[in-house]
Amino acid sequence: MTVPEKATTSTEPLLKVSGLVKHFPIKKGLLQRQSGAVQAVDGLDFDVRPGETLGVVGESGCGKSTMGRLITRLLEPTSGKIEFEGKDITHLNTAQMRPMRRDVQMIFQDPYSSLNPRHTVGAIVSAPFRLQGVTPEGGIKAEVQRLLALVGLNPEHYNRYPHEFSGGQRQRIGIARALALKPKLVVADEPVSALDVSIQAQVVNLLDDLQDELGLTYVIIAHDLSVIRHVSDRIAVMYLGKIVELADRKDLYERPMHPYTKALLSAVPVPDPRRRAKRERILLKGDVPSPISPPSGCRFHTRCWKATEVCKRQEPPLVSLATGHQVACHHPESVSDVRLPPRGPDQAPDQKPGAEAAQKVTKKTDS
């Protein structure tokens, strides 16, 4: 089954992130002196266009959730720049960010801990109105009931409490709360990972329908590649605080260029037994290095089967090797749609030029 492409409404980015860094200090002793830092996010560059969905995937601990909290300004960045609709929001204080909260909202991962058990559904969903001092037309109760109906819940649940709902229903309540102020950008942090498989498809389809109906822009964070493939227009792959590949959904799944992306995709279940028998499964050796002291050079070189000396010494930049396809790798996997520069005299016969020569890459042309 093919997944239809979703059209975006503009080429101008709604959100632009440049050099985003977040290091959490490690303090020890009575004087709480800093002895190191957890490099959770370490130099991210990407943008999100209006009406599109950017999916972010990677292993647990790679910095996905931290990135989501940074772009919604729930965390203060260590350095870098975050622009929303052309305005720099990187270091706005709480009062300055308050008007921006109407346009940028977040759906949290755990529907059990993100809802206050002492508050009714009506109080939870109407909280954004109270915090922003907004009175919707027709009154708050009528608007909350409309939002509940929009996400597929009974409007009569207004006075019920979170413990009376299933996990999927609680997540719908969280979605209704995020939509209350009619935001332009919604960051969903693993919105279905805590739900049963039977419920995940319902929530994913709901997010898709709401985007079509309300013109929302999404950044969806997940570790399930099947979910990301269904909802995303473009996909960013993260590893140890960095984006290693960023491409359109179709390009990424059909022609992954980074070895880590190829390994991730090899783990996606294939229902067809004939295709499954032909596919190579890539098993990565070792554990993910510590973000406190990441490896030098390419951070993936300790687990990569293609690593060479240059990978240990030099960090590959995220560069375009094809139209709309960026990769941070010295030895990219698939470069069939580009013509690489001639092999240098010091380059091994089986070694492909990668990021160190990326600026010289030119697209193939029909002769």
TrEMBL record:
It comes from Streptomyces rapamycinicus (strain ATCC 29253 / DSM 41530 / NRRL 5491 / AYB-994). Pfam families: ABC_tran, oligo_HPY. One of its GO terms (biological process) is peptide transport. Belongs to the ABC transporter superfamily. GO terms for molecular function: ATP binding; ATP hydrolysis activity. Residues 330-367 are annotated as: Disordered. NCBIfam families: oligo_HPY, PRK11308.1. InterPro entries: AAA+_ATPase, ABC_transp_ATP-bind, ABC_transporter-like_ATP-bd, ABC_transporter-like_CS, Oligopep_ABC_C, P-loop_NTPase. It comes from the Bacteria. Residues 15-265 form the ABC transporter domain. The keyword Lipoprotein does not apply. The lineage of its organism: Bacteria, Bacillati, Actinomycetota, Actinomycetes, Kitasatosporales. Keywords: ATP-binding, Nucleotide-binding, Transport. This is Peptide ABC transporter ATPase.
